[in-house]
Amino acid sequence: MGIGSLDLEIVGRGDYNSAMDNQLAELLAEETELRFNRFDNAMAWKLGSWIVDKARKEGLRIAVGITRGGQRLFHYAFDGTSKDNDEWVDRKVRTVYRFGHSSFFLGCKLASEKKTATEKYYVDEREYAFHGGSFPIFVKGTGLVGTLTISGLAQDKDHALCVEALRHILRKDPKPNSAT
């Protein structure tokens, strides 16, 4: 099963737990794999520009945001997006900075525990979004320094585009059987 889908076709509860555990492990492995040696404004521009070029070629209507240390280094919103997409970006970014994992991982983790963010973390879901599309930017030896966030597609596709872009910029090959 690739990480690109939450539509698990599973009969038994044990199979569901196993599949969800595998998905969570894959998502954590991405966070370990996709780390920068350094991340600066020029790298944010390169990453964001690559996503915008790809989205333009594929006709994707998305908003893209890249931050470092809470500062917005890159933002682009295609025609067909709205202020709502920007709000989703902001909520996903807040989630990654607070919890230190991709918003997709956190949403999947909550789903596996059958809890809401309010129940588990006591946070207002109008301020945080536990949906795919925001990925932590880690620098080796430093930790979490920023976020790459996409809004406008289905959550698994927002996440997959983040991963694809990071792999491209970091020149990493996709894992076998990966949905990215």
Chain-wise SSE layout:
Blueprint: H1 13-33, E1 35-36, H2 41-58, E2 63-68, E3 71-77, H3 83-99, H4 103-113, H5 117-121, E4 134-139, E5 143-151, H6 155-170
Parallel strand pairs: 1-4
Antiparallel strand pairs: 2-3, 2-5, 4-5
Descriptive report:
With 180 residues, the chain is an alpha+beta fold. It has one domain: Haem-degrading domain (Beta-Lactamase). It has 6 helices and 5 strands, in the order H-E-H-E-E-H-H-H-E-E-H. It has helices spanning 13-33, 41-58, 83-99, 103-113, 117-121, 155-170; strands spanning 35-36, 63-68, 71-77, 134-139, 143-151. The chain has a 5-stranded mixed β-sheet. Helix 2 crosses helix 6 (155-170). The model is unreliable at 1-13 and 176-180 (pLDDT under 50).
Short summary of the structure?
By secondary structure, this protein is of the alpha+beta class.
What is the fold named in CATH at topology level?
Beta-Lactamase
CATH class: Alpha Beta
Give the oligomer, counting copies of the same chain as homo and different chains as hetero: single chain
Sheet bearing the most strands, described? 5 strands, mixed
Number of individual domains: 1
How helix-rich are the residues, as a percent range?
40-55%
